Amino acid sequence: MKDLNQLSTAGSILVEEKTEATVVKMSGEIDISLRSQTGAALRQVLDRSRPVVVDTSGVTFMDSTGAAFLAQLRMFGSEDGIRVSLAEQSTVVRNLLEMLGVDAMFRDTPMRPAAAGTGHAI
What we know:
The protein is built from 4 helices and 5 strands; from the N terminus they run H-E-E-H-E-H-E-H-E. It has helices spanning 4-7, 35-48, 64-79, 91-100, and strands at 12-17, 22-30, 52-62, 84-89, 112-113. A 5-stranded mixed beta sheet has the order 1-2-3-4-5, covered by helices on one side. Helix 4 links the parallel strand 4 and strand 5. The termini are far apart.
């Protein structure tokens, strides 16, 4: 019998405090079903007033909800003087940000691509 958890493609957004920064780890399918998680994560991150590192290496799908979350995180962080960087990103995320023309928002930070060929785009 297969473990149903292994079959799930549900996404998640986890916020973790590290010594040097707040880490936002996104994984799975980032879509409209995570709308409440994006809002909660945004508030949590901005309340900390610490540098933010976003890891999207585990993202297999992202729609405009995820792209909007990343753009808002970067914009609001900038307004509050909080450095927001993409440390790891899946091919799906990189391609979506480029297609939407918002990849330039993250060009001042190093972005290491995750393993090529993972995930799927919209």
